[in-house]
Amino acid sequence: MTSVSRINRLTPYMFLAPAVVLLVVALLYPIGYMIYASFLDWRPSQYIGEAEFVGLRNYINLWNDEAFRESFGVTLKFAAVVVTLEMFIGVGLALLLDRNLRGMAALRTIFILPMMIAPIVVGLMWRYMYHPTVGIFNRTLKDWGFEPIPWLSDGTWSFVAVIIADVWQWTPFIFILSLAALQSLPQSALEAAEIDGATDWQKVWHIKLPLMMPVLIVALLLRLIDAFKVLEVILVMTNGGPGLSTEILSLRIYRTAQEFQELGVAAAMSNYLLILLIILTTIMFLYNKGAENRAERLRAAAQEA
Amino acid sequence: MFFEFSFEPVVCVGSVKGVTAAPDDWEDTLPTIRLEQVEKSYGAVRVLPPLDLTMDDGEFTVLVGPSGCGKSTTLRILAGLEDLSGGEVYFDEKPIGHLPPKQRDLAMVFQDYALYPHMNIARNMSFALRLKRAPASEIDEKVKRVANMLNIGHLLDRKPAELSGGQRQRVAMGRALVRDASTFLFDEPLSNLDAKLRAKMRTELAEMRDTLDKNMIYVTHDQIEAMTLGDRIVVMSEGLIQQQGTPEELFKTPVNRFVAGFIGSPTMNFLDGTIITEKSKTFVQGEGFKIALPAATARILESHASRDVTLGIRPSSFTTKPAKSDATIDLRLVVSEYLGAQSTLVTRCGDSDILVEHESASPVKSGGMLTFGIRTNEIMVFDKTTGLRL
User: Fold this and answer.
1) If both were cysteines, with which of A119, B291, B358, B371 could A232 make a disulfide (CB 3.0 to 4.6 Å apart)?
2) Cα end-to-end span (Å), chain A
3) Do residues B148 and B55 both lie within one domain?
């Protein structure tokens, strides 16, 4: 009797064990490793056990490191600009294309193609297009008699260039999510609004956008998290330059580890980024949880009514 | 009951000028609504063949028919939610077929209520007025008045999701009433409610019909709603108007088998047979029955001798314990549905199920043959092929 009940009690844990082991090996161990590494002065040529323990020095030094702070600023600026643009364009396009016209299905498929391309390829593609002499932009400008633009050799223009590439690749993500949200809106509520005298614009403002908001907030947070981690496109296009103008944090981390060979410092940088991402993810979970609780409360109230 | 107080000045009459959607020429009178050769197709699929229909001002018109008969499409065309494929809609003499809904001066109650999920009840009800930028004090006053009338005054701060089905239904009604439009459209407004609530709301709607001087057009598939609410009923099937008239006209003089079978509860029984004449009396004979028709009916049928017909006999036209005569029928009792004050007997004659309303104090035992008399003057005779009443 006792042994049977003990087995029963243990059964769920036995089923969970493989997943837990996998999680520990694949996630917790590397993260722990990285946290430990961030307290070391560690070169790639050394075995980790031989590296000198320096406590919080890496973190403190970074705090005072101009290049790191600038890189942090570039990352914030980059994320803010691309996500804002992607939200406006993506939602706008979805609002425009949310109708059953001929050929719309094909158009929607074409719209989401950029998302399917590997980031490194996107980077290469845009680098060719931004080429100072043979790239399509400058070539066209020249044919039309305009001055060429120093796309990747001027600090401001290169920041613009990487933003255009990211917006091109990720606006479709906002677009599909918005379109899905729009198409699941209660049609009769929109018809009721029409009968109530709402113009198309008033329907968007008073009905569609408020009802899409839960999806939009999650989409925004997902995009923000992604924008903070972007690496390959910029690595290939500008490698952070010219100067530090496009050196976002993940690129700085990559270069610190690969070029400057300071693994401990790179690990400390990663942890700063990790903290930022944890904050964003937590906001998203809290928001979802809050939405669930609200829905639950409303259901309960309806039961009572 | 929300109409037990004096209702007259409340909803529509006390409107403030400038807030109503009605253009000047509509202000004091309700429009007569006329559909002229209105038709609707989706690509090659025609859902509504050309249709003519006139609804007099102040009338409560019910469009009734089985699902897919075109009644909802007709209503949505009236509302402006569907484009016309042909024909024109007139409010009085003004063609409105090309106008968007908001220029048609109408309010609508949807089957699924179509409340705005993110707005509380007060904002749901006031949406139209807010779009029109009515003064806040007036919006507030109208919403409160209508909400109190509908017994939802205590729910104004809630979201639709916090309400029961019946309460949401009232909010939908309230949102239409606040609008103060000339014409109210109802698209199966009660079909999502449970039976008891539906009956209650039906009664309240009937009271509303009597107190509100408005055009009301009501779509339903439920003939009981049609009969109890309509000043005039339009029976539709397969996009065609089968018959229109008062509830009594439809019940007593249906033009064809479809209308006869659709109107009335329990539904009319149909028996196929042939007209025969024996000894100068006219009978209809079929599998398991031979019924003599009264002289008046027989005269109408004179020219149809030996024709195949369908007899229509309402469940209420049977009498029990008759003397054996040529106006009786033998039916095998299959099931007796005891309802208390009366029973509905499900019987069989040949292959046909025959419903019989049986007023009795006690349940009837199933099984065995029973003989019923028929009030033959209530029998209707239809052409078997065309379904038209002879």
Assistant:
1) A119
2) 48
3) yes
